[in-house]
Amino acid sequence: MEHGSSIEINTEWDIVAARQLGRNEAKETGFGTVDQARITTAISELARNIYLYAGKGVIKIEPVRAGQRAGLIITASDEGPGITDLQKVMEDGFTTSGGLGAGMPGVKRLMDDFRVETEVGIGTTITATKWLH
Amino acid sequence: MPQETGKQYKQMLKSFLRTQGEEDLYLGQQFSRNFIEKKIAPEDVISLHKTSIEELIEDLPPEVSISFDFLIEMMIHYGLALKEHQSLIRKQEAIQMEMDIAVRMQNTLLQTATPEVQGLDIGWISKPAKQMNGDYVYFLNETSSQVCLAVADIIGKGMSAAMHMSMVKFGMDSLRYEKRSPSEVLSFINKMIEKSISDSMFVSMFYGKYDTDTATFRYASAGHEPALFYCAAEKEFKLLESKGLLLGVQEEAKYEERTVKLEVNDFVVIMTDGVSETRTENGFIEMDFIENLLCQVKSENAQAMVDYLFNELSRMQDYQLHDDFTLVILKKTK
């Protein structure tokens, strides 16, 4: 069966659903407990950002295979306000000091690859990949 | 995580479970430095503990085993906080390096040579409270018989103060060959600062010019601390005050100019508020306190007097300067 699917984020409860989906996918891909927790935390942070700043959006979780490597790609997309100062948002201490959680640098650290595409007034798409080591 | 580390951890845990001794705890603590050095995250340590305990205790209740999954989840943010902390420390080291370069550059840009003048002994000191000095001393040997000096204090401290001070210095340098009077120099610098420095930045400055032929000291002040003049014949101190706004407040500000004549053993003391507003446990010191200190060393040379005052006043602040400290003494020797 081809697994991988997406969850719409509208309420705070959808964050829990996205976490659950992510954990299941991570387990199925073969990640250990610690990496499962890391992937789930990253999903949690991304989903929370959607919920807090864009109101609604989608979290997509899909397995990926590149040559010998297997992994999991998380895509968080919204049509929210976009990020004005990406450099600032990616700075350590910018969001955490405000008590908003791990923030974008946290997600970047939890995952292996991390990419942001954002346009003010259009929305934001964040793609983060974790590889099985 | 390296397999070897995992094996060692399990071995140590096994030994501890048997003895529950302090020695094992001590070894464990030493071992934890290994984890930190190898940048092993706290959640990985819990995971290692989980695997080890599952292998060591055959009939471990499943709830206990599962509970470690909860603990792993709890530790993820701690791990992130640790990584963030480490990255901020690296960033701080980089900033410190930049800062050191800036301090060296400031020192090079703003260095001034003490002029040699017939019959006038000059001593001075300028010490920053933090890394960058917001006070500034500038000497200019205009002719063989005339020496100018400026003592300035940027309202504000640190990096931005120091950068603005460089501008003031180059402003004064540009007047180098023009033989302007103290009030003209202040007017010029005032216009320059008014144009180019942000509204919240002000500079106080005392500018003086000593003429060896006439033994007169002409001075003007832009909102600066009054200078002290010691008259040896009368054994008395007088304040050298002159009216003028801080630099950078008003473009057309005028600066009053005054003159004092020096006799042998008379001296002039120019300072910044880091000296006159020395704070001690009992509050600010009074001007007569400074006068008393000066009296005790009035027969010494100018540099010895300056050093004595600095040592006494910094000792009173437990050697922690609250503000940049600048002091200049001009003493007529013959």
UniProtKB/TrEMBL annotation, chain A:
GO terms for molecular function: kinase activity. Keywords: Kinase, Transferase. It comes from the Bacteria. InterPro entries: HATPase_C_sf, HATPase_dom. Residues 34-133 form the Histidine kinase/HSP90-like ATPase domain. It holds the Pfam family HATPase_c. This is Serine/threonine-protein kinase RsbT. The lineage of its organism: Bacteria, Bacillati, Bacillota, Bacilli, Bacillales.
From TrEMBL, chain B:
Residues 117-332 form the PPM-type phosphatase domain. Gene3D superfamilies: KaiA/RbsU domain, PPM-type phosphatase domain. Keywords: Hydrolase. The keyword Hydrolase applies. GO terms for molecular function: phosphatase activity. Coiled coil: none annotated. The keyword Hydrolase applies. It comes from the Bacteria. This is Sigma-B regulation protein RsbU (Phosphoserine phosphatase).
